Amino acid sequence: MRLADFIDHNVDAIVAASEDFAQTLLPAAAHLDPEGLRDHIPMILHAVAADLRLPQTAEEQMLKSLGRKSALHGAPETAAQTHALLRAKSGFDIQQMVGEYRVLRATVLRLWMNASEPLGDAAHDDIVRFNEAIDQAVAESVTFYTAEVDRWRHVFLGVLGHDLRGPLNAILLTSELLSRMTTAAPLSTHTLRLIQSGRRMKGLLDDLLDFSRASLGLGMAIRRAPVDLEAACADELDVLRAALPDCPIAFEVEGDTRGSFDASRVREVLGNLVTNAARYCTPGTVVRVQLAGAGDKVSLSVENSGSPIPGETLNDLFEPLRRGNEEPAENFANRANLGLGLFIVREIARAHGGEVHAVSTEGATRFTMTLPRAA
Fold first, then answer.
1. Domain range list for the chain
2. Which residue of 14, 49, 243, 367 shows the fewest CB atoms closer than 10 Å?
3. Which overall architecture, per CATH, does domain 225-372 show?
4. Which ranges of the chain would DSSP assign to H, the alpha helix?
5. In the structure, what pLDDT confidence band is assigned to residue 233 with cuts at 50, 70 and 90?
6. pTM score > 0.90 for this model?
């Protein structure tokens, strides 16, 4: 009997072995009934059997062995993807889910080998095709499982950040009220430190919420309005100069810088870029900010002197939790931020329909954000 026919005729026995194994996957399996333990295993088996009956080119064989074939025949979502989704929601970890496929593979081959009928000349091809189909199912399940877990992780971070803002705002408001009620030097110093720490925490939570939105595919929230970016950037630079007294900041403006932008988000970009430049620039050198309007676009650039960033890592700088200039890991861990600054810069640019890029040469690094004047 060919392997495809054997699978279709022995689904119940194969599924029973799979169910017995799933019962051992604690604690996730403890609350599942037999139907939940079986889940989509029968559908996966029928899809594998159907796939074994189909003709297959050498290219299709290679793609399947690499887990890159689009779907197993007969599985609409596919069954392997749905199985991964339900296992993730039930609390199974990825090792447990992959273990189910390991047991499934071993059970099918063991039962088939032990069958009384001779396997026939096509047995070798059937085994190769079967392993390819199981590998494809594993690849689909792992990809879907990972995406689902990542999605819920970002949802959790977003909910956590949102819920923490309420009590944090209460702390900030109370601190500001206390600062206005007393002028005594010791108490005033303590309340000022409390306010500054609260604002820092609020900034971190805002970054976390922005990261969660972007990771969930929701994009960065912006509110466009007619604005002259020269005034907005000048105001932000006043704040930055006070916060970075040891870092000289030069500001140059060229052309018409008016348009429809979210001024607070552009200020956030400027703050992130200048803070980043101040961190990595050669001590005592000037951080140069240039705002230029030309045609239907406005660009904002921040340049600092210092060690060049390797070209192969420039694009990675805009990914979350990345570092440039080979910063030691212990410095990264002790930072007062989440390592999301440049990621947020990129997402704000994209939300405006613009782009951001970096250029690093010997002695200078320059980040430039270009935005369209209108939506």
1. 1-219, 225-372
2. 243
3. 2-Layer Sandwich (3.30)
4. 3-9, 11-22, 34-38, 41-53, 58-65, 79-90, 94-114, 123-181, 185-215, 229-243, 263-280, 329-333, 341-351
5. very high
6. no
